[in-house]
Amino acid sequence: MGRINTNVQSLIAQRVLTSNQKSLAQSLERLSTGLKISSGKDDPAGLIASENLRSEIKGANQAIANATRADQVINIAEGGLGEVSSLLTELQGLVTSSASTAGISAAERQANQLQVDSILQTIDRIASATSFQGIKLLNGNFDFKTSNVNAGISDYKVNAAKYTGGSLNVDVLVTGSAQQGGMFLSFGASTIDTNTNSQFTIEIGGSVGNRQFTFSSSTSLTNIAGAINTFTSVTGVQATVSGTGIKLASTKFGRSQYASIRVINDGGIASGGQQGLYTLQPTNANAANTLSKVQYSTLGNAKIAFGKDVQATVNGILTTSEGKTARINTDFLDVEVTLGNSAAQTLGPVGTHAFTITGGGADFALGGKVNISSKVSIGIQAVASSMLGNSAIGRLNSLSAGQVNNLATGNTEQAQSIIAESISQVSSLRGRLGAFQSNTVGATIRSLSVAVENSTAAQSVIRDADFATETAGLTRSQILVNASTQVLGLANQSPQAVLGLLQG
């Protein structure tokens, strides 16, 4: 070749040198930053995947922090609840002590009342003082707010609720009525009629215990019912005069409740006519099933009639029930509803809505995405003395001086029932919060930690530089740059050979 103006070999050497220098610069950049992808031009698809993973990792790490914070909040609430539980146990002892009227002086009973008042004040103080960063935890601040509670609802509790919008309607549909365990004793008259010198001896039993009764001829049904009801707290069975007979029924509803009768001596009561024992109609617990008559003389073994739990759905979900109380526990709604007697025995919906949840609850974001699935909401009911107990038996503050269940002049049996219910409520709340810590918070932290590990590993594979590979590439690029530089020098010298033609 004899051309001077265009040195093709030099152009080729320059192109190769530029490429090698670019490769060398890339290796130096990766080794100095530790990243295989520093900008979109390095790997567009890899950059997109890496950024998505980085976002997920950041969200998951914050969710772990949120879960840890939730655990700390619950720990503080548990501390306060533990103290309340201990104080309620002390109340139990004071009430039992004051119930022994023959062995305690008025001064001692008054001293016990002073302790009760002090304990109730302390419970209220704990309820108002237990806080996290100034946020009250046990004063009802994190309880769910409700409105439009139907009259058929005697009590309810919202343990957890997740919903979109400003409110959530809770609908209860009764599909099977709650029933007491009951039976009907017919005597055909307003008094019993036994043989001469014979007595009617029976044993009445219920879920609480048994009691034996003996009645003479001509005893009125009113007196018989009164005698049975005197021991209702011992047996769990109550008696009601109805026409020429007596209805026996468990004091509570549910399949664990029952009424039983065993005839020890029938007293020769006539077996003709209406006299005998009847079961109650399955669709009307206030009426006897006339086809079920059993003579008293054949009741040597106990005859037992069990109650039934209410059957219902809440927002279309089948409930688990006990007595008149129905509950559902799902990821989105955990409610416990206790129906009144009429509502529990009437098939169909309980009003247009049972009640409406309008807000409240303690919300924790335990997922990397901010949506309803990642949100966990739990209700923490107030543990003040005015809130513990229930509307049926009374509230805990009724034990204070001057109130209906005080230790000096009040009903100590009722007071103990209120304390037992309060202990059950606090224990249930502690158990629910403990389950939340262990199963929800603990599992969330563990699962998210594994997700962060795996996502970080995947992100590292995509974005981080492999130093072994890059150092090998660096060495190769250095050699090629040196070689390309020397070749370029030779290529630039080649046109000088053309000068020989001019000299010839």
SSE diagram, text form:
Elements: H1 8-33, H2 44-99, H3 106-129, E1 131-132, E2 135-136, E3 144-147, E4 153-161, E5 168-170, E6 172-176, E7 180-186, E8 199-206, E9 210-216, H4 221-230, H5 232-235, E10 237-242, E11 245-253, E12 258-265, E13 276-281, E14 284-288, E15 303-306, E16 311-314, E17 317-318, E18 320-322, E19 325-329, E20 333-339, H6 341-344, E21 348-349, E22 355-360, E23 362-365, E24 375-378, E25 389-390, E26 394-395, H7 412-463, H8 467-493, H9 499-503
Antiparallel strand pairs: 1-2, 3-22, 4-20, 5-22, 6-16, 6-21, 7-11, 7-13, 8-9, 8-12, 10-11, 12-15, 13-14, 16-17, 18-19, 19-20, 23-24, 25-26
Helix pairs in contact: 1-8, 2-3, 2-7
Report on this structure.
This protein is of the alpha+beta class and 504 residues long. Among the domains are: 8-34 and 465-503; 180-306, no CATH class. The protein is built from nine helices and 26 strands. Strands 10-11-7-13-14 form a five-stranded antiparallel beta sheet. The longest helix is centred in the N-terminal third of the chain and has 56 residues, at 44-99.
